[in-house]
Amino acid sequence: MEQHPLLDALVDPDPRRGIRFYDGLGGWDFHPYTELARAAFVLSDRLRSLGVAPGELVVPATGTGPEFVATVLGTVAVGATPAPLAPPLVFENPDAHRRHAERMFASIRPKVLVTRPEWADPLGAVPAGPGCPQVLKVTMAELSAAAGVPQALACPPERALVQFTSGSGGPAKAVAVTTDALSANLAAVRRWLRMGSSDATATWLPFHHDMGLVGCLLTPLSIGADLWVMRPEDFVRTPLEWVRCFGTLGAQLTASPAFGLEHVVRRVRAESLEGMDFSGWSAVITGAERVPPQVLRQFAALLSPFGFRSTALLPAYGLAEATLAVTGSSRDDEPRSLSVDPRALDVGRRVRPSTDGTEAMELTGCGRPLVAGSRVLVTDRLGRPLPEGHVGEIVVGGPSVAEGYTGADAGTGEGVFSGGQLRTGDCGFFDQGELFVVGRLGDSLKCRATTVFAEDLEASVARLPELRTAGVAVLLGAAGGRDTAVVVVERRPGPWTGEVVRRLRRRVPGLDVVIVNGPRGTVLRTSSGKPRRRAMWRAHLAGELGVRVFESNVLDAGPIAATG
Q1: Which pLDDT score, from 0 to 100, does residue 484 have?
Q2: What's the chain's average pLDDT?
């Protein structure tokens, strides 16, 4: 087993570098790595006093702040494994958070939950039961004030991390990441970005999510590089402060789902960027969801007058089951996009260029394999590798693939993890050696020898002028024995409903269409912004998803119902 990649942050931190946390008022609180290491040893001493033994699980649930960093490092110091949990404030519905925590505790049975005092009550409200942990309340102020704690290090655990999947395709599952897998992925990301200790990162991503945790926290932490951190809610309110990290404060690296870049385009005006210089901004990793090419173009157009280079946009593909990164675009190349015919997409078939611009599916290339020794294949339904240009399931193998699911989810990995390979459930193809991701096989329908992907129909609907700023999700499934698309829109009904139906019927003849309306929050999302399609589909079947404002059945001459 390799040395744990975070040990240097504990035993040899650089006092000149550290993490700056946004205070919500335009300022930044600096915590040098030496202070964070001291706080980690204080916390590790308390974990030992609670009986935490090497190999046991500790849950950091402290939010995006210095307490989280101290908890992760303190857990490593006692030889235990961190298993991050989202804090209550990330969830709009407290009941949803309680249910999520209950499932997590019952699944992985952690020894200790570390949280802030103000969140102890919501988390402590989880009924005592199987796996219910002891609760340790901490603040950075009291951890920093403690002194005289021995800096003892236990042998690092074989499992470096337990992280939960996003939950976009069903209940979130616990993924066990070994120390070797984490080391391989961190090394791959650093090599990809040509990242050294002098290259600063800025992020607004939550630390409990794999892109925020592995990509934006553990990667700079592993080499002692500076980091600027905003809470997600602060980014939503003031995205200009995140942009300022690169134009004024000297940050160079970041990662964001496409919706974050789109949020910047909507909220940041060019005149507010005057005086900023983005020529040093070298990497914007974009992933976690399908990357719309137009979002990349709009983001580059906003910032390029101030020195931003579009080659800094790095579309990528990854997932928690592979620790994080799988493929990534070259730092020297412009992002590539292809327009393909969605009517020719099916597992085993060759991709066909689009000849009809109105029906084209424009896809962004996600680069080439990043991890040394890894294998990324596209396979048919029997698991046989397909040649370049053919659509199939993406299969990943190599040193950064996780050990598998753990806890109560351990038995669900059969067929997903097998022989050192990971069947991702994602569909894609290679073109000129670059991976293009089409969508989730579990969010698709087979119609007339063609696989129809929810992501494609969703992109088509979201391009309507009336819906460009609205929350939109498309769900596909069988209702009443018929292929059905449910369109969930966070906007009041209007003339756009008819155009939605026409667009979907042009793409998928014979499709029943239901349009559901509701306020902001009706489109259920994971913490990384992905639509929780399976959860919304179940809510729709139960009659618990918004208000049905339009239903159209192709067996009838017209709509069954249209309201509003």
Answers
A1: 87
A2: 88
Q: Which residues pair with 394 in a beta bridge?
A: 378
Calpha distance 94→323 (Å, rounded): 29
User: DSSP letters of 268-299?
Assistant: --GGGGTT---TT--EEEEESS---HHHHHHH
Cα 398 to the center of its chain, rounded Å: 21
**Alpha-carbon dihedral of residues 36, 39, 40, 43, nearest 10 degrees?**
-160
Threshold 0.90, pTM exceeds: no
| Residue 490: closest CA among 509, 504, 469 | 469
User: Poorest-confidence range of 174-178, 359-363, 390-394, 473-477?
Assistant: 359-363
The residues near 50 (Cβ < 8 Å, ≥ 6 apart) are 111, 112, 134, 136
Asked whether the beta carbons of 302 and 268 are under 8 A apart, the reply is yes
Between CA 550 and CA 212 the distance in angstroms is 38
Q: In this model, does residue 277 exceed pLDDT 80?
A: yes
**What is the rounded CA–CA span in Å between residue 115 and residue 456?**
40
Read off the pLDDT band of 357 (50, 70, 90): low
Order of strands across the sheet with 201-203?
Answer: 28-32, 18-22, 227-229, 201-203, 253-257, 283-287, 313-318, 325-328, 368-369
Residues 6+ apart with CB under 8 A from 516: 486, 487, 488, 489, 522, 540, 545, 546, 547, 548, 549
Mean pLDDT of 254-269: 93
Helix (H) or strand (E) holding 399: none
Q: For residue 448, what pLDDT is reported?
A: 65
Q: What is the model's pLDDT at position 556?
A: 46
Residue 48 has pLDDT above 80, yes or no: yes
Q: What are phi and psi of 290, to 5 degrees?
A: -60, 135
Place of tokens 């991709």: 351
Contacts of residue 425, defined as CB under 8 A and 6 or more positions apart, other chains included, come to: 169, 393, 416, 440, 441, 442
> What 8-state DSSP symbol labels residue 218?
I
CA 96-239-279 angle, to 5 degrees, is: 135
Tokens 């964001």 belong to which residue?
A: 256
